[in-house]
Amino acid sequence: MPIFVPMKMQGKEWFADWFDTTYYHTLYKNRDVSEAKQFIQRLIHHLPLEKNDRVLDLACGKGRHAVTLSECGFSVLGVDLSANSISEARRFENDSLKFAVHDMREVIPNEEFDGVFNLFTSFGYFDSIDENQRAVDSIAKMLKPKGTLVIDFMNVQQVVANLVKSENKSVDGITFNIERKFDGTHIFKHIRFNADGQDHSFTERVQALTLEDFSSMLDAANLKILDSFGDFDLNPFEETSSDRLIIIAQLK
User: Fold this and answer.
1) What is the distance between the alpha carbons of residues 116 and 77, in angstroms, rounded to a whole number?
2) pLDDT tens for residues 163-206?
3) 146 with 240: CB under 8 angstroms?
4) Surface-to-core class of residue 50, CB atoms within 10 Å of its CB (0-12 exposed, 13-18 middle, 19+ buried)
5) Please, are residues 87 and 114 in contact by the beta-carbon 8 Å criterion?
6) I want to staple 73 with a disulfide (CB 3.0 to 4.6 A). Which of 27, 51, 93, 201 is the partner?
7) Residue pair 165/178 in contact by the 8 Å Cβ criterion
8) Cα 241 to the center of its chain, rounded Å
């Protein structure tokens, strides 16, 4: 049976509500699946992982990265806080690919992994650095000795420098009005729209975490950074110009 880990504080944090709505999936329905697959295929050549290794896709959404990891020969568990996302992902389940609802701040009981993947800016949603550290500490506790962690995050400096303050995006007959701002510590995305006869409003909030921030958190959890890349083609990370911040770390 799939693992189910009880969640704490569900419904009290912005991501617990917004990510579990059908409107979230409508807004982001056109994410590039082929790009995600190519990224994973390139990435695994840089990792000390072998076929049949046990890996965790942490904050897996509807499972697009987890599916590719499974196709690459790994035994995969994908977990996410959104029950709706996991319900969608479970249609891909097979003997080597399972999904479950889980809060990334918690350790999954009776599981350990050769590798943990946290992809597509699925970090920094919390109110405090302490909560980030709690998540990293939980990851470290689930890794086997010399286990590998991959974090794919935005490059904050590039995002802030090119922030699109306002735009409208129409998807499936819904017009989403999106406004963005940076307050010095968080990047906010305010999303407003009318659907099903009602006005809706949600706010995404992501901490503006730098390579130095991640380095500090990882070091505190006994993880060391092996490599950092700046895009899905795995070019070197450049703080002023890279699109992404992709970190490969290993348990010391």
Assistant:
1) 10
2) 999 999 999 999 999 999 999 999 999 999 999 999 999 999 99
3) no
4) exposed
5) no
6) 51
7) no
8) 22
DSSP code, position 82: -
Q: Is this prediction's pTM over 0.85? A: yes
CA atoms within 13 A on the CB side of 171: 16
From the list 123, 186, 116, the residue with the least C-alpha distance to 153 is 123
Q: How far is CA 135 from the centre of its chain?
A: 12
Read off the tokens for 66.
Answer: 């987890």
Domains along the sequence of the chain with CATH: 14-154+210-251 (3.40.50.150), 160-203 (no CATH)
Burial environment of residue 179 by CB neighbours within 10 A (0 to 12, 13 to 18, 19 or more): middle
Within 13 A of 166's CA, how many CA atoms are on the CB side?
Answer: 1
> In this structure, is the dihedral angle defined by the CA atoms of residues 236, 78, 29 and 178, taken in order, positive or negative?
negative
Provide the CA 233 distance to its chain's centre, in angstroms: 18
What does the alpha-carbon distance between residue 70 and residue 98 come to, in Å, rounded to a whole number?
Answer: 10
**Interval 18-74: pLDDT, tens:** 888 889 989 988 776 788 889 999 999 999 999 999 999 999 999 999 999 999 999
**How distant is the alpha carbon of residue 168 from its chain centre?**
25
Beta strand 54-58 pairing with 75-80: parallel
